């Protein structure tokens, strides 16, 4: 027997340091996350603060950023961390994506030196939590039409609007909020507790239950002039952050798929049907072989895109291709694995149904599969078909 990753000799593409980082994150997941995650999922809760400190202590928050207490790791190392975290649960990878690739990256890339010093060291340590408010109730795929606005009032800014589906919204110490201004879309740092700023959690999710999802309401929120991120102008600002988080999902989705496939292979070896191991049937072996192929191709694509990112040549279209392919294949693998587990596949005793329903959110957030399809369509034809 050979593991799905060994089949493709994936380790030969990684440096010793990258393998060590992957193993460290796997150990943290085995110790701190896997024993509890099904219960968190069932309860619809996540101990975000506690986990953020653990993940920050391991150097995983903003790990691909330099300075300000961040670990300054390469893109493949960051991707492998996402793979391991999402192998435990997509909600954990979301926590790390939103903190490091969206909130911290926005401050790191577009913030003033004062803003970076104020927020980044605490966020890297997991002592401070950030969220990223782009989506609104009426504008998800089309954020350019957002209604949230910021107007000057003397030296201050006054923000009004509502953001929805915001990961970590109610636990965040600081929200990166994108708003229309007379000067186009700009980003603002809104500290928790600012008068007029309230948060409400989204209840009754069936997917990504081990993750906090919130509404942010801004009702006349008054901020000083220096609350604005000086270097982000237009939609290019938030979309630049999305490239970072989407990159993590290219690896992360394969982590969820790998966990499903390993579970299914072990289950099929143990389970007897018609007096023989389930794994001995040709129909089963076809499913396993097909899934291993898609997993292997997805992992190879992820590492290739990671190397392009490290070389500084990765394009947004390549990120779209990776996110579209790998999430689509991961969800397919999770569903196929679920069939192999029969009735056991619908319980939280095994991770497969949890990954499967989690991946429904991953398919939608960070750009839906339709949006990434249209990004590729535009790249191939030169014609934008979004509107
Ligand atoms: P368009 O006219 O094409 O572009 C506007 C400006 O943005 C630039 N641009 C990008 N820049 C960096 N990275 C990218 N990927 C970029 N895509 C476009 C573009 O060059 C232009 O710049 P400039 O300077 O010329 O003005 O914009 P559009 O309004 O037609 O929209 C294009 C579209 C549909 C692709 C874009 O709106 C889009 O990606 N929509 C999807 C929105 C989305 O992904 N939202 C995610 C919210 S955050 C989230 O889901 C977190 S989930 C939690 C977790 O990660 O765990
Ligand atoms: P819509 O944009 O209304 O799309 C509905 C359907 O229409 C989709 O199938 C879509 O693909 C399709 N569609 C849209 N435009 C086109 C088109 N031009 N052609 C064909 N089909 C089209 N957002 C944040 O800002 N921050 C977060 O932290 C965050 N966390 C999230 C966490 C979770 C659990 C979830 C589920 C979402 C989160 N989101 C977050 C929001 C997420 O990014 C949006 O849900 C996503 O961008 C899609 O927007 P929408 O839900 O409004 O769908």
Automatic annotation (TrEMBL):
Q: Record keywords: Nucleotide-binding included?
A: no
> What's in the keyword line of the UniProt record?
Flavoprotein, Oxidoreductase, Transit peptide
The protein's superkingdom reads Bacteria
Acyl-CoA dehydrogenase/oxidase N-terminal domain location, by residue? 15-127
Please list the residue ranges annotated as the Acyl-CoA oxidase/dehydrogenase middle domain: 131-221
In this chain the Acyl-CoA dehydrogenase/oxidase C-terminal domain maps to 233-380
* Name of one Pfam family that matches: Acyl-CoA_dh_1
The protein here is known as: Acyl-CoA dehydrogenase family protein
Q: Which organism is it from?
A: Nonomuraea harbinensis
